[in-house]
Amino acid sequence: MYDMNNDIKSVLVSEEEIDKIVTKVAAEIDRDYGDSDRRLLLLAILKGSVVFMGDLMKKIKRPVEIDFMRVSSYTGTETRGKVDILLDLHRNDLPDMDIIIVEDIVDSGKTLSYLTEYLKLKGANSVKCATMLDKPVRRKVKFDADYVGMTVPDYFVVGYGLDFDEKYRTLPYIGILKPEIYNN
Ligand code: IMP
Ligand code: MG
After folding, report:
1. Which of 45, 122, 140, 149 is the most exposed place for a label (fewest CB within 10 A)?
2. H-assigned helices in 9-94
3. Does pTM top 0.85 for this prediction?
4. Contact 38/100 with Cβ under 8 angstroms?
5. Residues in the chain with pLDDT values less than 50
6. Which residues contact 71 (CB under 8 A, 6 or more apart)?
7. Tens-digit pLDDT profile for residues 17-51
8. Which residue among 162, 165, 170, 174 has the greatest number of ligand 1 atoms within 8 angstroms of its CB, and so is best to mutate?
């Protein structure tokens, strides 16, 4: 059987570390929104953030609603720099909502700076962002996430939702892909 683990050079964030990180982010969200009566929407950006989203929503104690958008800015390991909305948010109650965009990783920052503006223009009461990983050295536009699981160096990483050409999303840890995999 093909074993995806053999394509991983090393583990960057283990399952145990991921669990601690998600617990920390959930506690920060409860700290910031726990006393508010406004509706809170966790907005996962498909597909990369589904695993983080699933874990995070279970650990937040205050009530949250969930929704999804799908955007595309990547092919292979390089960003195209242009954000396409592939699945939009069709709802008219955004003025009642505080939104937390849930992302797998912030890289150039283009996806999230675009989406934050977009959701504010659609009338959301507030828009913040929670990301599992942050690669600040890759930033092309200024963007700071409000909740950051872990800051990582400039490696191309996979697992825990993150893919390389749609593969490796199902790995339970975050790993550094062997360069020969993406150089082929
Ligand atoms: P940004 O617009 O450049 O910040 O792109 C963010 C998106 O690029 C993420 O949601 C990921 O889908 C993808 N991405 C960035 N870095 C990586 C990585 O190291 N592995 C897998 N996907 C990545
Ligand atoms: Mg991706």
Report:
1. 140
2. 15-33, 50-59
3. yes
4. no
5. none
6. 45, 83, 84, 85, 86, 111, 114, 115
7. 999 999 999 999 999 999 999 999 999 999 999 99
8. 162
